[in-house]
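Q: Hi! First time doing this. I have a protein sequence and I read that you can turn it into a structure. Is that right? Here it is:
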Amino acid sequence: MINNLLVDGNFWQIILWFIIYCVIGWVWESLYRSIRLRRIINSGFLVGPYIPIYGFGAMLFVILLHFTTNPIELFFIGGISAMILEYFTSWLLEVIFHARWWDYTGRFGNINGRVTLSSFLAFGFFAMVMPYVHQQVSGVVASIPDPWLEIIVIVMAFFMISDTITTCSGLARFNKVLRRYQKEIDRHTARFLDFVRKGRQSFEMRFTKGDHRARSVLTYIQRRTIMTFPSFNSTLYPEAFKRIEDLFATVNQKFKDTQYKPKKSKTKKKPASS
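A: Yes, that's right. Below is the predicted 3D structure, encoded as C-alpha cells:
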C-alpha cells in the first residue's frame, strides 16, 4: 500500500499539499499549546490558521519519500532535516526582525536555544507517519477537479501572502516603537537620571491611558506576538521590550480584573430575635 504512495504531483497539487500541511501544523500546535497552557492559543507566526514552517517541513518529508519509506531511515533523516529547518528559521527571523520567537535555552540537548532533543524526537515521529498521512492528503488533492483546484490554491495563497505582508509590516513597526523608546531611555540616561524617570513615566502614562488593551501603542499583531510566544524577545532593544512587555501584562491584567468581578450574593438579614 505504501509502495503505491503518490509523491509526484503537478504544480497546483504541490502548492495545495503545502497549504494543507501548514493548516495541519497549525491545528496540531494550537491544540498542544492550548492544552498545555490551559487557554486558547492561536499559534504560529501568522494570524491565520496556518504555520508555514510545518508546510516546508512536510515538503521535505515528501521529497524524502522519493528515496525511502523505511521507518528507521525516515525517523533519523527526517528528524535531522526538520531540526536544520527549525534552526535556520529561528536564525532567519532573528536576522530579519531582530527578535527570537522561541528559546529552548536550559532544555536538555538544546543547540543555541534554537532546537532541542525533544524537537528531533517529535519531527522524527512525524517523518515516520508521513507515508500514511501523505497517502491520504495526496489522494484527496488528486480527486479535486482542475478548475476548482486552481481556484482553491489561488484564494488560499492570496490570504497567506496578504497575512505575511501584514504581519511583517506590523512587526517592523514594532521595532520602530522599541527603537523610539530605547532612544528616549538612552538619551535621558546620558544626561540626568531624573529625566529617565520623567521620560519613562511619560511613555507609560501614554501606554496605560484610555483603552485597557493599549491600542494607542501596540497594534493587534504586536500584542498577539507577545501573548502567543512567551519567549519572544527583541535582540536589538531588550530593555525597551522588557518594559513594554511588563506594562502590557499589567494593563492586560487590569482589564481582566475589571471584566470578571464575582457577583456578591444577595442574602437577606434575619430579623433579630426579641
